[in-house]
Amino acid sequence: MNKELEHRFVTELENNQNIVHKVCSLYTNDRDSHNDLFQEITIQLWKAYPKFRGDAKFSTWMYRVALNTAITLYRKSKKKVQTQDYDSVIFKVKADEYDDTQEQQLKLMYKAVKQLGDIDKALVFLYLEDKDYAEISETLGITEVNARVKMNRVKNKLRTILNP
């Protein structure tokens, strides 16, 4: 690969790396797994970059590659031993007046989202990233109507999980 292509890739990756970190957070439970998945996604992005034609925005293409990589590895690793959730073992010092209600609600939401299937999880992630249904459908390779229908079903699943 030429230096110009390599420079463009590194620049795009640096500018959009939060996408990869968010996907890693959604599909992993500890720092080591997060780092491993980040590395694997970066490798897959690098391998696929010469074929990136620019038909879609780089970030949309990056979401697609990152989610597909995470989903593929997630399916392969389902047989592995469950790991301890990193957030539950990290030591935290809280001030007396600190209200952690919002933090607790976020944790419950993430716990609920992690119970969803891999495609549903990706759909919620993109929705929470404020992606419109057109971009969600393009990223996941489904129709816009299908994305809307699936999102409604997922919202109902989450309501059931959060309010048993």
TrEMBL record:
Keywords: Sigma factor, Transcription, Transcription regulation. It comes from the Bacteria. Residues 109-158 form the RNA polymerase sigma factor 70 region 4 type domain. This is RNA polymerase sigma factor. NCBIfam families: sigma70-ECF (TIGR02937). Residues 14-78 form the RNA polymerase sigma-70 region domain. It comes from Flagellimonas algicola. InterPro entries: RNA_pol_sigma-70-like, RNA_pol_sigma-70_dom, RNA_pol_sigma70_r2, RNA_pol_sigma70_r4_t2, RNA_pol_sigma_r2, RNA_pol_sigma_r3/r4-like, WH-like_DNA-bd_sf.
